[in-house]
Specification:
The protein is an alpha/beta fold. Helix 1 packs parallel to helix 10, helix 9 packs across helix 11 and helix 10 crosses helix 11. The radius of gyration is 21 Å and the shape is globular.
Length: 365
């Protein structure tokens, strides 16, 4: 009986993950066409960069240098200081005075990252803005690529373009995050992207969601709630799947920071109104919980070693097939030990993130 249940779960999981892989490959083929379709600078959508900062004095200079080297310059860079307790605002003002790029430095009208982003968007003079973080590194063609992707998607009701984010230096954290990015990309073909990162997310200013749609009662979700609200409002959210659109960010600063980050992500799941995001979250949690249950049954001798190995190895193999394609696209180096480690810890990570995320009160910084 247990064997039949396990086989049914694996078949279902393989079907779901295979669907992600099919659409990820389709997206790669589709997006390759627009690179040559829009090439002139005057065809690329002008962008204002909005960066919400809190205690980022040590990172701002490197971030601004990256923007100064872009092949297509930002119309304006709006640095929004969110009640920093360090010298963030002074560093930003000094960089603005240097004149390498057009920088405006403003104070957050409210408190928290959501209010900071909204404050920056309200000051933008362009039709489109792109939000990012002060700790990212961007390719010199980042703005050109994102602007080209916006121009290529000609839908009148397009509300946002999500860009890929890559965690640097490889390892299990990079692989884990790439898998989420790959799944998000796979949901975007019809303009109903299920997830995005505010580290690389372009919005049409006039369609930015209302404050009450962004769940102001929790600190997290400035990206995914905005995407879901746009779709709920009848707008489209596409994905820029050109590698030059990718930005890089640092790994978590230790295990505690990594866990807090995952718990913050988990705290958003109960607010999802995007059917694909909700169903995927529930299925991933179900499979992980089933793996732990079979492990307990094996330890207490109610399940066989065959049952245990079939589910754990089968699930890991299915996930590796998908994630390996994604990490190859992201140019992330992987090793056998990374995959082995993830296959062991992932079933425990998922329920922990959901449980603690539901009861944990998230905060930005």
């Amino acid at each position: 009986m247990i064997c039949i249940v396990i086989i049914s779960i694996l078949i279902t999981h393989a079907t779901i993950v295979g669907h992600w892989l099919y659409h990820f490959i389709r997206l790669s083929n589709k997006e390759a066409n627009h690179v040559s379709a829009i090439g002139r600078a005057d065809e690329i959508e002008p962008l204002t960069v909005v960066v919400a900062c809190k205690n980022e004095a040590h990172r701002l200079e490197g971030f601004i240098k990256g923007l100064a080297c872009q092949t297509v310059s930002a119309t304006e860079i709006i640095v929004v200081d969110d009640n920093s307790t360090d010298s963030t605002i002074h560093v930003a003002q000094q960089l603005a005075q240097q004149g390498q790029v057009n920088i405006s430095v403003i104070l957050n009208k409210g408190r928290g990252k959501k209010d900071a982003i909204r404050t920056g968007i309200q000051h933008a003079q362009t039709k489109w803005v792109i939000t990012t973080d002060a700790d990212v590194l961007c390719h010199e063609k980042w703005l050109e690529s994102m602007g080209r992707s916006i121009a290529w998607h000609t839908d009148e009701n397009i509300g946002a373009i999500a860009g890929p984010v890559r965690i640097m230096n490889g390892g299990i954290e990079s692989i884990d995050f790439a898998a989420m990015m790959g799944w998000a990309a796979s949901t975007s073909l019809k303009g109903k992207t299920a997830m995005a990162s505010a580290a690389n997310l372009a919005f049409r200013v006039d369609l930015y969601p209302r404050k009450e749609q962004m769940h102001p009662e929790i600190a997290s979700g400035d990206d995914v709630f905005a995407v879901h609200a746009l779709i709920e409002n009848g707008n489209k959210v596409y994905w820029s799947h050109e590698f030059n659109s990718c930005v890089e960010t640092h790994q978590a600063e230790g295990l505690v920071h990594w866990l807090r980050q995952r718990f913050r992500w988990g705290s958003k799941a109960k607010y999802y109104n995007h059917n694909v995001a909700l169903r995927t979250s529930m299925w991933v949690a179900f499979v992980a919980a089933t793996q732990i249950l079979i492990l307990l049954l094996f330890v207490t001798r109610f399940a066989s070693l065959t049952d245990f190995m079939m589910l754990w190895c089968g699930r890991a193999l299915i996930d590796v097939v998908f994630t390996k394609n994604v990490t190859t696209w992201y140019k992330i180096r992987t090793y056998a030990i990374d995959w082995l480690t993830l296959s062991i810890i992932y079933p425990f990570q998922v329920p922990a993130v959901f449980i603690f995320g539901m009861i944990n009160k998230s905060k930005w910084k």
